[in-house]
## 1
Amino acid sequence: MPLDKSEIKQLLDRLIFELTDPNDWVQDVWGLSPLMGESAARLFEVYEALVDCCPPEQLESLWERLYAESQAANAHQN
């Protein structure tokens, strides 16, 4: 059964930001460097816009690919 968009967004958020809330991530980056924080904020805005406009099937496919890549990278590290 396909996942709905909110479930896929949660999975992508966890994959990208791990245990950090995305807004907290932006603030953390901003605290390290305002210039980088501004870029992080724009990046997060674009990410959210893409999630909003992409069909759930494409988002799920993207998540599956990114998840598989992250698992492969983790396997190489161990």
## 2
Amino acid sequence: MTRVAPSPAFFRVSTARRRPARPRAHARASTDDDDDRETTIDFSVDVQKEFERGVKFGLEEIRPRFYPNAVSSADRGLPIADALVATSAQVALAAVTLALGRWRPSWLVAAPALGARGFAYLPSALAHGSKLAAVWTVGGLAGRAYERKAFDGTFEEAIKRTVQGGCFAAGLLILLSQAEARARFAQEGLGEPVLGNSPEGDAILIRAVVELFVDIASEATALVTWRAIRWNTSPTDPMSLLPDASLDDDERR
């Protein structure tokens, strides 16, 4: 029987030495090096100059928003009107909640000294509404919602500044809700306010989130509706009847 010699091509393929695979550890190290290069901080920026720029922006742009002249002379009573609207929204919410009788926020508590059924909840509703009104006032100042353009400019500008102030107020309200939840946990002896530690703590946190959402939604609806009504109404300042009435207070000065 004749022995057949293997094909040269097959011989070369079958006996060729394979290139060793790249170690996985080395591959992971290379990937980590790439990530480090991507997240490297650029120290070529002048940090001191940027810090001074931020301080200057805060002193010249942010701080004047909380001065008394941040409220336009065309409507000095607008912050009071906003506060009344914000407080009335919570009174209306309390009335609807009591009428439905299914869910009641934790702040809606009856006053023992008042005998009337519905009137007994009025003090707690006014107190909660006053808190939200104070938060909105700070947000309105931060969002420049009391300048002339916020109510006598374009409709888009009026809604834009109302939303800006509402976003700032919502941030403050979130911080207040966190502080209240932490105080409640400390009072009940539940430890840190972390979801999943205990059923009692979870109930407190879930209730706080629901009430926070209801507060933001109710105040946003009331204030945006009110600012839409207030937009471009009859001016209360006689100076606004002059030819330069379209100018803002800052532009007049």
## 3
Amino acid sequence: MAPAASRLRAEAGLGALPRRALAQYLLFLRLYPVLTKAATSGILSALGNFLAQMIEKKRKKENSRSLDVGGPLRYAVYGFFFTGPLSHFFYFFMEHWIPPEVPLAGLRRLLLDRLVFAPAFLMLFFLIMNFLEGKDASAFAAKMRGGFWPALRMNWRVWTPLQFININYVPLKFRVLFANLAALFWYAYLASLGK
């Protein structure tokens, strides 16, 4: 009886909601890993775009309450259908293709991520956003010419230390979540490129 009573008290106290939310997330992560990572990516990507809009409003000292609702929706679509699933499978592939016991595994994984995955993923981001915004191929080409290299260089600066930690120290099942949390600010940066 005592353990059950103390458990009830613990759940009823401060922090019960975060504990239950975490337990639910871990359950969904175990039962539906790709769907859970997709949903998390969609939500956090949308939140990143919303954050970018709020930062932009503050920077311009705008007092209007209007926001571009389409921005967070586009980012949610991108996060749900692309970021979550692709990241899940990329990390899984990388873990099995370059196992920890391979010499210099951490460095090899980082190089694979930074030199192959990051440029391809960034190009995909520009392509999908161009499509979701209803723009044509010439707009995509202009975005690639004007925004790809600056964004990739910034990606390498910002994400290289984060990905080193993520790839080498974060458990495989949490890597997408770790990247999503860091990406809140990255998506805010990418969204600012679209202005």
## 4
Amino acid sequence: MPESDLLPQSIRLAPSEIYFSQDSISSLVHVSPHGGGKIPILKALEGILRGVIDVERIVTFDVVRVEGKFFALSGNRRLYIYRTLQKVGFLSSVKVTLYPLELFHMDWLSMKFTTTSEGETVQVRVRDSHYFLRRQEAVLRRYGYGPSTASDSGDEDDITLDLDEEHLSRQRTKIRNKKKIKKSRPNLRAHHAEECSRLRHARRTKLYKAELEKRYDAKKMMKTADREAKRRLFNDLAMAEAESVGRSSNQSINRQDTPRQGGPTKRERTMSRLALKTQRMINCDERVKEPQKKLAETCRLEEEVILCIRYLFVAE
């Protein structure tokens, strides 16, 4: 293929010969060749009809030829305006830039072409398409290019006023709905705050009950451990006392049992110390937090008592 065939060409085509490549377009269009923002399609259409916007100075768009048909790669919104103006006889052709199909990748073209009607029609993305078309017809009739159904210009003005009134009524409805929402918002916030407060209170109550149950279980375990330790200690003391009584009845009185200077004997002093330690352990008001520590201390005292008793018997 010659290299000249791969270069873009500037040609003029009728808007009806160019097909849309997209299935829908936005309601805003970019018409200024020097940058700037976008304007609504109806405003651009009215500007062209009034002569404020020159069609020849609008930014050109690119087309590509696929199977003998010209498709717009860019400028589908401008093509919509041109087709509308061609229908009313305002223009017959526009200037476009034709690109060879070989310059583009097929995957990119398949993503670009979203039309579902083979480019014949396109949908403008507006909230109310019926209202948009009625406004478009009113703009065309205002400048004498649309299909006139009224007898004079006064009727056309009435149609435009009716459209404006319809639009204003919808705006008033939206404003009323917003006011209702704004008015009911404090009640919704109060209800939401009350619900959150109730949930927080329920959660705190649940956690508090769980903490109380945990403390009650720990206290119950401590009491059970203390009671078991006391029972074992008393049993050991009773057994030791019974053994000491049995041995003393079978043996003679030892020298250690004789009182010194009218005081108690060594056995009596030792037994008094053991009884005092046992009484202190039983009447102790301080409680350790963990039952294991209390049980360990009790076992240690128990072993000490048993060792003292054994020491007495060995000494005898």
